[in-house]
Design a protein that fits this description.
Number of strands: 0
Distance between the termini: 55 Å
CATH superfamily of the largest domain: Winged helix-like DNA-binding domain superfamily/Winged helix DNA-binding domain
Structural class: mainly alpha
Order of helices and strands: HHHHHHHHH
Radius of gyration: 18 Å
CATH architecture of the largest domain: Orthogonal Bundle
Helix content: over 70%
Number of helices: 9
């Protein structure tokens, strides 16, 4: 039987390094994935992930064990990505086109799910992904984060609301507007490509 998050956190608060390592192993994919989808590839993702777990460890005493740990770590990750993006505002965000196989499958599934006509070739999917990435650069930081958490991480609206520190209704409205913006921008880009 898997040890609960609350039990692991309690043990980690008491100085149990194995408990902290278990938490890190349990949630490292989530943290890396959010950072990767938001920041793109590169050393920033590893630095952000390490910093997230360091911040978690430093603030572990503030964690409310009655709440989902996944949401709290997601919030720390989202805030860390937003901080890094603000810090690097003058530098362009890295291209997210350099996907490994597993991430490429996730993105191809995203486009397959939303494609209105038949299936796309690998080349068409890659081009769509590049266009989506370009369109996402025009979004506000919070709109982009909400989109990443919902469409690429498949989190529930309630989880996104907790991570972004807002209401579920606000998340739904933000995502609806974001999808409309992206759809309009992608249509414009596709028209320019033809």
């Amino acid at each position: 039987m898997q040890t609960s998050d609350a039990e692991l956190v309690t043990r980690a608060m008491e100085g149990d390094r194995e408990a902290f390592r278990a938490i890190t192993e349990r949630y490292q994919r989530l943290v890396f994935s959010i950072a990767y989808h938001y920041m793109g590839s590169g050393n920033d993702v590893e630095d952000i992930a390490q910093d997230v777990f360091l911040r978690f460890f430093q603030s572990i005493h503030r964690y409310d064990t009655s709440r989902p740990l996944k949401n709290w770590l997601g919030k720390i990750t989202a805030n860390r990505c937003l901080d890094e993006l603000r810090r690097q505002r003058s530098n362009p965000v890295h291209s997210m086109a350099e996907l490994d196989t597993e991430e490429g499958v996730d993105i191809n599934e995203l486009f397959a799910k939303h494609a209105s006509t038949g299936s796309m070739s690998e080349e068409e999917s890659e081009r769509c992904f590049q266009l989506l990435h370009t369109a996402m650069l025009g979004l506000s930081d919070k709109d982009r984060m909400a989109f990443v958490l919902r469409e690429m991480e498949d989190l529930e609206y309630s989880q996104i609301a907790e991570i972004l520190g807002t209401s579920e209704v606000a998340v739904r409205i933000r995502l609806s507007r974001t999808r409309q913006k992206l759809e309009g921008e992608l249509r414009r880009m596709f028209d320019e490509q033809l």
